[in-house]
């Protein structure tokens, strides 16, 4: 699970980042609001942790930017601000959790874990992450990027599911033709399906290697 941490205090940023990484989270950091917005535009995160009083633009402005992109990622605010008006602004902008500085790292651990459980049902093995930024639900057969569903045809979905069964290994075209439904009987048909999957996702979604076939990293 990937977290973006916005914090301008170096010591706070380093200690929180290192602690969250020790718990198994993938952590990106930003020292100011503009840097955070740039990273949000380019990456998919499962949790935002924002300080409010940061350089360039405030954490509140970053929250507005998140909402303008229709991103539903949960947001935790950590701040020394205790004024009720500041708290009200945070919740009105979509804050899901409020952590007052100073705090114990153990408190952050439990609050982060609860948000992950609530919003992602962590431990649900039906969720598979592909290329680190795509989420595939093996139960509902939905694939999403930034909470937006990607529509695949039946043939494209069958190839995706088979590559996931063989995840981490290259699969030859002959094997795909033999094992996966009615996809066509020649390599041109398979390549066309894979090309369309890449067009709907990214060129690195399915990796190819001459002589070995195709592989998906999940």
TrEMBL record:
<dbReference type="GO" id="GO:0006355">
    <property type="term" value="P:regulation of DNA-templated transcription"/>
</dbReference>
<keyword id="KW-0805">Transcription regulation</keyword>
<dbReference type="InterPro" id="IPR001867">
    <property type="entry name" value="OmpR/PhoB-type_DNA-bd"/>
</dbReference>
<feature type="DNA-binding region" description="OmpR/PhoB-type">
    <location>
        <begin position="124"/>
        <end position="218"/>
    </location>
</feature>
<dbReference type="GO" id="GO:0000156">
    <property type="term" value="F:phosphorelay response regulator activity"/>
</dbReference>
<dbReference type="InterPro" id="IPR039420">
    <property type="entry name" value="WalR-like"/>
</dbReference>
<dbReference type="InterPro" id="IPR011006">
    <property type="entry name" value="CheY-like_superfamily"/>
</dbReference>
<protein>
    <submittedName>
        <fullName>Response regulator transcription factor</fullName>
    </submittedName>
</protein>
<keyword id="KW-0597">Phosphoprotein</keyword>
<dbReference type="GO" id="GO:0000976">
    <property type="term" value="F:transcription cis-regulatory region binding"/>
</dbReference>
<dbReference type="InterPro" id="IPR001789">
    <property type="entry name" value="Sig_transdc_resp-reg_receiver"/>
</dbReference>
<dbReference type="Pfam" id="PF00072">
    <property type="entry name" value="Response_reg"/>
</dbReference>
<keyword id="KW-0902">Two-component regulatory system</keyword>
<keyword id="KW-0804">Transcription</keyword>
<feature type="domain" description="Response regulatory">
    <location>
        <begin position="2"/>
        <end position="116"/>
    </location>
</feature>
<feature type="domain" description="OmpR/PhoB-type">
    <location>
        <begin position="124"/>
        <end position="218"/>
    </location>
</feature>
<keyword id="KW-0238">DNA-binding</keyword>
<dbReference type="InterPro" id="IPR036388">
    <property type="entry name" value="WH-like_DNA-bd_sf"/>
</dbReference>
<dbReference type="InterPro" id="IPR016032">
    <property type="entry name" value="Sig_transdc_resp-reg_C-effctor"/>
</dbReference>
<dbReference type="GO" id="GO:0032993">
    <property type="term" value="C:protein-DNA complex"/>
</dbReference>
<dbReference type="Pfam" id="PF00486">
    <property type="entry name" value="Trans_reg_C"/>
</dbReference>
<feature type="modified residue" description="4-aspartylphosphate">
    <location>
        <position position="51"/>
    </location>
</feature>
<dbReference type="GO" id="GO:0005829">
    <property type="term" value="C:cytosol"/>
</dbReference>
């Amino acid at each position: 699970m990937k977290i973006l941490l916005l914090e301008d205090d170096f010591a706070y940023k380093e200690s929180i980042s290192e602690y969250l990484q020790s718990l198994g989270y993938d952590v990106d950091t930003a020292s100011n609001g503009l840097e955070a917005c740039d990273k949000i535009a380019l990456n998919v995160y499962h949790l935002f942790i924002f300080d409010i009083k940061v350089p360039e633009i405030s954490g509140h402005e970053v929250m507005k930017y998140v909402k303008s992109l229709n991103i539903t990622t949960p947001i935790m605010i950590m701040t020394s601000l205790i004024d009720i008006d500041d708290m009200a602004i945070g919740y009105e902008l979509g804050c899901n959790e409020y952590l007052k500085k100073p705090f114990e790292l153990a408190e952050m651990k439990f609050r982060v874990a609860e948000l992950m459980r609530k919003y992602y049902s962590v431990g649900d093995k039906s969720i598979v992450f592909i290329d680190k930024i795509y989420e595939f639900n093996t139960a509902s057969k939905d694939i999403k990027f930034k909470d937006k569903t990607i529509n695949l045809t039946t043939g494209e979905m069958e190839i995706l599911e088979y590559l996931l069964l063989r995840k981490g290994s290259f699969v030859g075209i002959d094997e795909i033709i033999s094992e996966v439904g009615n996809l066509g009987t020649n390599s041109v048909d398979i390549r066309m399906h894979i090309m369309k999957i890449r067009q709907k996702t990214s060129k690195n979604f399915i990796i190819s290697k001459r002589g070995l076939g195709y592989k998906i990293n999940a």
